């Protein structure tokens, strides 16, 4: 994989991580303030799942950055 491909992949992962994090925070806010009952629990659980996926994508992008420095 060339350097520009790695950079594009890293940027794409960070963009998706940001989108998922914002979506997760919005769902968490709605689940904790507006929703009630089962819907609130579903929103909160989905929000946590989105935040975890966002963290994993950020971790993968950082790992690629550090391993890319070692290669070249």
Q: How does the SSE layout of this entry go?
A:
Blueprint: H1 3-33, H2 38-71
Helix pairs in contact: 1-2
Helix count from the secondary structure assignment: 2
- Amount of helix: over 70%
Bulk shape: rod-shaped
Major β-sheet, in short? none
Q: What is the radius of gyration? A: 16 Å
Helical/strand content category: mainly alpha
The parts where pLDDT drops under 50 for at least 5 residues are none
How large is the share of residues in beta strands? under 5%
The count of domains is 1
- Measured distance between first and last alpha carbons: 12 Å
Write the element-wise H/E pattern from the N-terminal end onward: HH
Tell me the number of strands. Answer: 0
Mean pLDDT: 87
Give a structural overview.
There is one protein chain. The protein is an all-alpha fold and 72 residues long. The protein has one domain. The chain is 90% helix and 0% strand. It has 2 helices and no strands. Helix 1 packs antiparallel against helix 2.
Write a short abstract of this structure:
This protein is mainly alpha-helical and 72 residues long. The chain is built from two helices and no strands.
């Amino acid at each position: 994989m060339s350097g520009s491909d790695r950079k594009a992949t890293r940027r794409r992962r960070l963009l998706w991580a940001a989108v998922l994090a914002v979506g997760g925070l919005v769902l968490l806010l709605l689940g904790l303030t507006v929703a009630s009952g089962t819907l609130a629990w579903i929103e909160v659980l989905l929000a946590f799942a989105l935040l975890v996926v966002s963290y994993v994508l950020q971790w993968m992008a950082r790992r690629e950055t550090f391993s890319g420095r070692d290669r070249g």
